[in-house]
Design a protein that fits this description.
With about 150 residues, this protein is α+β, with helices and mostly antiparallel strands. The chain is about 50% helix and about 20% strand.
Length: about 150
Amino acid sequence: MKAATYIRGALIVFILGSALILGLAGAFAGSMRERLVFAPHERDTEGAVRQLVEREKALRAAKGNFVAFSNADVEKNASLLGLAWSTFPVKEYFFDAIALESGNIRLRALPRADCVASLSIRARLYIAELSPAGEIVHSGWYPSTD
């Protein structure tokens, strides 16, 4: 009888402990995913777009105009714009640059659908708009989480 009481008590402690662990994991899963999964990818993407901005500034200074490109151009030419695209997060994002009527260029990092579906990145894009004077008009994640 004593062993049955001990086993019953151990089983109750195990069940309560497991429930507590699962409950806490569920409560903190969103912030953990934010810090451990989303944030590193987003930092890498912001850094990649900063590199694109600096390269576009240099090309504008040297040639007098920005260089627009599409994701297909990036996939065809691994050294497009003289950049090492292998260091960019191209498995998670599409990159392109669009010349605007205002003379500005809009650099974008668009999420790949398969990465969004697998929850490795969020469903939002990073945009930086660069003026002919070399100033960043605006940049950021759209939609923002603020």
